[in-house]
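Sequence only, no structure available. Ideas?
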Amino acid sequence: MVLFLAAGFSAQAQDLELEGVEPFAIPEMEGAAAEAPPPAAEDAAPQTRAERLDALFAQLLDPAMTEAAATRVQAQIGRLWSESGSDTLDLLLLRGKRAVRAGELDKAKAHFSRLIAFAPEFPEGWSSRAAAAYADGDFGRALADVGRAVELEPRHFAAWSGLGAILEKMDRPQEALTAFRKALEINPFSQTARDGVKRLEREVDGRDA
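Reply:
I predicted one. Tokens follow.
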């Protein structure tokens, strides 16, 4: 899944408008899930988190999916990704994202590092610290963290788009293109990934996308 990272990777709430920095952000998180249509009667029974995610990812690949509906689906996925199951961990995630928004990147990374220390299997901690490191120009740390995020959650399309952006900044266009394409396989509505593929296909493949 992340073989092209092998040489460079070392493993080490509410208020959901704070979804990190581009290109890690999930569009229009605030309020979007509330606008989603109610589930069909046969889907009304309680589902596990994994079952809900499976259903939402399947919707993104539905040929009948529209851009507006996809935004709502992405919002719901983002909300589920941000649920750690612990109020304390959710608070660390929230404080870190607020620090990113305020431009306090060292503080943000400190919050995310504490989150990772307490919950190393929680993908959003790694993805969020990768976003903060990317914003701070620390591409080596961002690369390692986002690699861990996609290992823990292989369908994390925002992390795959972030990986593409990091690799592009590191002048590794072929690997960046692979990452952007992976994001689009999971979520054909990722605008960051679409733009990355279009830009890098011209450079890597020598053709207009």
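Residues 6-20, 29-42 have pLDDT under 50 and may be disordered.
Hope that gets you unstuck.
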